[in-house]
Amino acid sequence: MEEKFYYDNKFVKLFAYATIFWGVVGMVVGLLIALQLAFPWFNFELPFTTFGRVRPVHTNAVIFAFVGNGIFMGIYYSLPRLLKTPMWNKTLSAIHFWGWQLIIVAAAVTLLMGFTTSKEYAELEWPIDIAIALIWVVFGANMIGTILTRRVQHLYVAIWFYIATFVTVAILHIVNSFELPISFMKSYSLYAGVQDALVQWWYGHNAVAFFLTTPYLGLMYYFLPKAANRPVYSYKLSIIHFWTLIFLYIWAGPHHLLYNAVPDWAQSLGVIFSVMLIAPSWGGMINGLITLRGAWDKVRDSAMLKFMVVAVTAYGMSTFEGPMLSLKTVNAISHFTDWTIAHTHIGAMGWNGFLTFSMLYWLYPRLFNTKLYSEKLANVHFWIGTTGILFYAVPLYWGAFTQTLMWKEFTADGLLAYPNFMETVSQIIPFYHLRTFGGTLYLIGVVIMIYNLIKTAKQGSFVATEEASAPALEKIPSTKMFGESIHKWLERKPIQFIFWSIIAVSIGGLLQLIPMAVVKSNIPIIESVKPYTPLELQGRDVYIQEGCVNCHSQMVRPFRSETERYGEYSKAGEFVYDHPFLWGSRRTGPDLARTGVLTGKLYKSNAWHYEHMINPQSINPVSVMPKYPWLAKNKIDLSTTAAKINAMRMLGVPYAEGYESQANDDLMKQAQIMVDGMKTSGVENAQADTELIALIAYLQRLGVDIYVGKETAKNQGVKMPEAPYTDAENLGAGKEIFVKNCAACHGVAGEGNKIGPNLTDNFWIEGGTNDKIFEVTSEGYISKGMPAWKYTMNTKQLMQVVSYTLSLKGTNPPNAKAPQGEEVK
Amino acid sequence: MKLATHYLSEIGGISIFPIISMLLFTVFFTFIMWHIIQTDKETVRYMEQLPFDESEKNN
């Protein structure tokens, strides 16, 4: 008995509009942050336009708004047609659509306001997390309702991918969002340090797997055969593709933490399963591409199929590159560089972007019952988009290699060839220009598409509902029939199917996370690691709020190139009070794990940090760091201190009972001491109760704990080992060292600046004998911000730079700083 | 990574986790392969035609 029913195209159209709109928003924001990295002026010196806050808007907009709406567009079109029934419930469809758009708007606004958990792709704060969970369930209910009211006995492979997407994203989102709210829009992760990192990257990796990959594979398995008008090359292969992919994917998360302070076995597991993932991924890619066998003539004529072919190829490239990046040897080179950024953009621009465009070019003519306005313009879009991807990715790969090699290069003397981190950034700025150009091309392509689609819509008329008919589903026994294979039985039993999918994806997650749950009691307790002071805790939240983690890691890996540059490598036990962890994934700026260590390579005085945060370019003209002048004015929200202390105690941080009532007093005391100390270094106008002071207090705490009691004593009375050099060769070498290391605080010509004194006059704070100058250079004058250079230079280099400094005497450079200290005749 | 390995090696029988993982996958994969091999041609043909309407049926 044939039944008549109507497909509803309204929500397909709405989701199509949304994916286009948010796609443009996400790409424009992406362009802005690309410009910010090349030209820091584009941070505009405003809190809500600064890189650290804007970058999460880009990633979230592209993943959850652009691709998210693309998923829903494709599913709302293909699911009813595969099941021969309309979407289950129109009210749910409406709640799903409008709820999702509201969440996106709320996400963009709150991220720019500085409300963030700092966990990548999970930055949104707890009220929005709850909203996401609710709307996701609405989507799932609508999908499962549709499946249960279907007129087709068996579920096509695309639907399995949709189901796996729904259940896995739900699990990931909920587990990773366990957080303790301390106020509206502020919460602390329930996990700390190592555990938080493992949960986050179990989530982060699988957000890529189950939000950017599985739903789009489902869409590929529907739209590619439809467009090529031939069934998928091998249906059997698609079954293997599905089960092995969802089973393996969930294990691979720890490959984001190779060489970080996480257990070896978890790292190895991540590597093994990542490498194994090549097999199903390439199976899927080959299945997609060979579906077009004998139809390549169609590809020549159809821009839509061209987009599809490049999308599937980009999927293959990313899923080859991913396992390669998971190998420890490769990861040692790639991690913290732009290689990761290039890799994700091959996926986002090539796979997700191009597949979305191909669906749009295919759907629009059908939704508006007409032909595509211009096949030619679609071809222009294709070529300009492909060129854009190449111009985006190739320079970033090049830049990544350049930078990582500079990070790891040593001189013949065994010292870092590029000890100044900034040099390694300046070197790759030209690549950032090219990358911005590539992104612009890609966006121009999208604008051409929008024009083409609007023209297409105008020349046709919207088909709100499509009539179709199919026989009602005959009742067959729900138990497995004789001679029926288990899988075929599963394919007609969606609830059992969902159950088994959950089992498949849960196994990997559980086997990784259960051992982590028992780790806490097994992390070697480092006695000297203590909770943050109230001021540091507030400062840490400023660090989170401004998104510092987007450019600065806090994880020294156990490589000589890193311990030479930053100091002792990071230990798991150091992070036990870090809710959330802040290890970071990209070093646009230097690692900060050891910034507070007095004897460390990166130590800077409070005064230096103060001036640097307000205007980094005044200290280092080529710096790309944004300016943060508002932090010197914004007051610390003292009303939250008690709640934060209480929340931390509840999470297991050992603050004494009742400490919350005296926390603000301690906070102000510590801040006042800092401000008073900074006055002696020439910073007169610092306010104790500002966010900047809290942030500096936090930075000065980083990495300190494991050094307690281990500071190398300052050697008094160090003598210059030989007479100062006067020959051109040594003075030339000294000048080079001076410009790289000393100029930031003493000026390029030794004229002095806000931080350091003039070195060309006859006035010396610590005394002007050769021995004294050598001693201060070698041993430092920590309280005033002069580092002890003996940790970064050998004696010969110290001699060279001191000799050069002595040769500057009486040169009277322009802009010389007023004399400080005693005159030495 | 001596340090990280050190504290985890002290968790009783930690090596069991990776072993369980590989075993589970092997069993799972064998089952899927066995199932694929014994799926008959007719079923495959029926399933792969699901995206198409009656009028578009093809090879």
Plain-language structure description:
The complex is a heterodimer of chains A (825) and B (59). In chain A, 60% of the residues lie in helices and 3% in strands. Chain A has helices at 10-38, 51-83, 90-113, 126-148, 157-176, 193-228, 235-249, 264-276, 278-290, 296-301, 303-326, 328-334, 338-367, 375-408, 421-426, 429-459, 486-491, 494-519, 534-545, 560-566, 606-614, 616-619, 641-650, 660-680, 691-701, 728-746, 770-779, 795-807, and strands spanning 2-8, 179-183, 186-189, 465-471, 763-764, 822-823. In chain A, a hairpin with a 2-residue loop joins strand 2 and strand 3 (186-189). Chain B is mainly α and 59 residues long. Chain B has helices spanning 2-9, 16-37, 41-48. The chains are: A mainly alpha (825), B mainly alpha (59). Chains A and B meet through helix 2, helix 6, helix 7, helix 8 and helix 17 of A and helix 1, helix 2 and helix 3 of B.
- What does the overall shape of chain A look like? elongated
Instruction: Give the number of DSSP strands of chain A.
Output: 6
Mean pLDDT of chain A: 91
How large is the share of residues in beta strands of chain A?
under 5%
The radius of gyration over CA of chain A amounts to 30 Å
What kind of assembly state do the chains in view correspond to?
A: heterodimer
The radius of gyration computed from the alpha-carbon positions of chain B, rounded to a whole number of angstroms, is: 23 Å
Main beta sheet of chain B: none
Q: Name the CATH superfamily classification of the domain at 292-471 in chain A.
A: Cytochrome c oxidase-like, subunit I domain
User: Which band does the percent of strand residues of chain B land in?
Assistant: under 5%
Give the tally of β-strands of chain B. 0
* Span of the ends, CA to CA of chain A: 111 Å
Secondary-structure element order of chain B, N to C = HHH
Annotated CATH topology of the domain at 292-471 in chain A? Cytochrome C Oxidase, Chain A
Would you state the CATH class of the domain at 292-471 in chain A? Mainly Alpha
Structural class of chain B: mainly alpha
Spatially, the strands of the biggest sheet of chain A line up as 1-4
Distance between the termini of chain B: 56 Å
